[in-house]
């Protein structure tokens, strides 16, 4: 790369480094200096690309929420029947609970911010609406809302419980929630 040119992917590199740092140290451990070091970029590029740490956190978590919605979509899109959709939700719950610990930590860090700050509640509300819209392609709106809560709860339990629920417990819970009015 010639002198004076910047990496066209620097912004994305910084956002990825931000999420990695949050996953390792929590939001409380985030600073421009730590992110720049992790991303391998000059400290000055932090303020060039982002107006401040809040701007950086919002953008990083917005990208993370989009990633999780894409996970929902990958699991739910192939389902053509209600039974396939139920099985897709069951698989989704276990895939997320047994998936990268990084995603679980980032989700909880975002929820903690959302519990304290309205701008992050707005972000999590948009994330939940997107997830429910995907579920509503297969289930009623009330069932989709209940499923969304079940997914969050069982994912957390599956990741943190010494004896996480097995697939049959999950399958039964999904079936009960989606069994009509």
UniProtKB/TrEMBL annotation:
<keyword id="KW-0804">Transcription</keyword>
<dbReference type="Pfam" id="PF00440">
    <property type="entry name" value="TetR_N"/>
</dbReference>
<keyword id="KW-0805">Transcription regulation</keyword>
<dbReference type="InterPro" id="IPR036271">
    <property type="entry name" value="Tet_transcr_reg_TetR-rel_C_sf"/>
</dbReference>
<feature type="DNA-binding region" description="H-T-H motif">
    <location>
        <begin position="31"/>
        <end position="50"/>
    </location>
</feature>
<dbReference type="InterPro" id="IPR041583">
    <property type="entry name" value="TetR_C_31"/>
</dbReference>
<keyword id="KW-0238">DNA-binding</keyword>
<dbReference type="InterPro" id="IPR009057">
    <property type="entry name" value="Homeodomain-like_sf"/>
</dbReference>
<feature type="domain" description="HTH tetR-type">
    <location>
        <begin position="8"/>
        <end position="68"/>
    </location>
</feature>
<dbReference type="Pfam" id="PF17940">
    <property type="entry name" value="TetR_C_31"/>
</dbReference>
<protein>
    <submittedName>
        <fullName>TetR family transcriptional regulator</fullName>
    </submittedName>
</protein>
<dbReference type="GO" id="GO:0003677">
    <property type="term" value="F:DNA binding"/>
</dbReference>
<dbReference type="InterPro" id="IPR001647">
    <property type="entry name" value="HTH_TetR"/>
</dbReference>
């Amino acid at each position: 790369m010639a002198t004076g040119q910047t990496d066209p992917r620097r912004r994305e590199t910084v956002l990825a480094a931000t999420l990695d740092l949050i996953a390792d140290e929590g939001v409380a451990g985030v600073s421009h200096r730590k992110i720049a070091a992790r991303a391998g970029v000059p400290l000055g590029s932090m303020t060039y690309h982002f107006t401040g740490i809040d701007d950086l956190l919002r953008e990083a978590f917005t990208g993370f929420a989009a990633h999780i919605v894409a996970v929902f979509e990958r699991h739910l899109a192939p389902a053509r029947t209600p039974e396939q959709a139920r099985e897709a939700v069951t698989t989704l719950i276990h895939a997320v609970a047994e998936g990268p610990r990084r995603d679980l930590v980032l989700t909880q860090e975002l929820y903690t911010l959302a519990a304290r700050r309205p701008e992050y509640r707005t972000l999590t509300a948009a994330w939940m609406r997107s997830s429910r819209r995907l579920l509503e392609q297969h289930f009623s709106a009330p069932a989709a809302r209940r499923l969304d809560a079940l997914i969050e709860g069982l994912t957390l339990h599956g990741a943190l419980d010494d004896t996480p629920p097995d697939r049959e417990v999950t399958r039964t819970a999904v079936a009960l929630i989606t069994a009509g009015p």
